[in-house]
Design goal:
Layout (H helix, E strand, L loop, with lengths): L3 E5 L2 E5 L8 E3 L5 H8 L9 E3 L7 H8 L9 E3 L6 H10 L8 E3 L7 H8 L9 E3 L7 H8 L9 E3 L6 H9 L9 E3 L8
Parallel strand pairs: 3-4, 4-5, 5-6, 6-7, 7-8, 8-9
Antiparallel strand pairs: 1-2
Helix pairs in contact: 1-2, 2-3, 3-4, 4-5, 5-6
Amino acid sequence: METSIISNSSLIIIQTKSLQTRWGLYIKTTSSECVKYIATSNYLKNLIYLNLSGNSIDSEGVKYIATSEWLKNLTSLDLYYNEMGNEGVKYIAESEWLKNLTSLNLSSNRIGNEGIQYIAISEGLKNVTSLNLSGNHIDSEGAKYIATIECFKNLTSLNLCGNQIGNEGVKYIASSEYFKNVTVINVHCQTQRS
């Protein structure tokens, strides 16, 4: 049995050939180097679910994920509560390997309107049906971008809770011609009173 181990204060990954049949993986790490190791592991080529939430992963770590040919089968990517910012979103939006994603959680990642613009021009996120952008720095202008993203016509769930989209942003989302299939929208947020 081939085994290799890496470790840091919060992560020990044991890579064995048996991981080739794993469908989902949840990992706690604080290192972009550990994320790089995950992204370059051919043992994870059949992985469809990857949860790296709460790991302080920055844009460099996200770049490893977005450029990994071994993660091309992912259908669900959970990056909740990291530190990717707008640059990390750019890597995901431009990825040629993450085109099978149907569920994408980017909540609490310091993403602003610039990050939403990257998503808006993405060709690779058209299969996403569930998108969580809660707890970021998106305002009404960002909501306007989201409402006009044509590739999200397959979207069924959108979470914008905890952003500052206001009443104007809610109107953009509610009137979007691309959200005809959406059955769940969470825009519980700070709205301005008239």
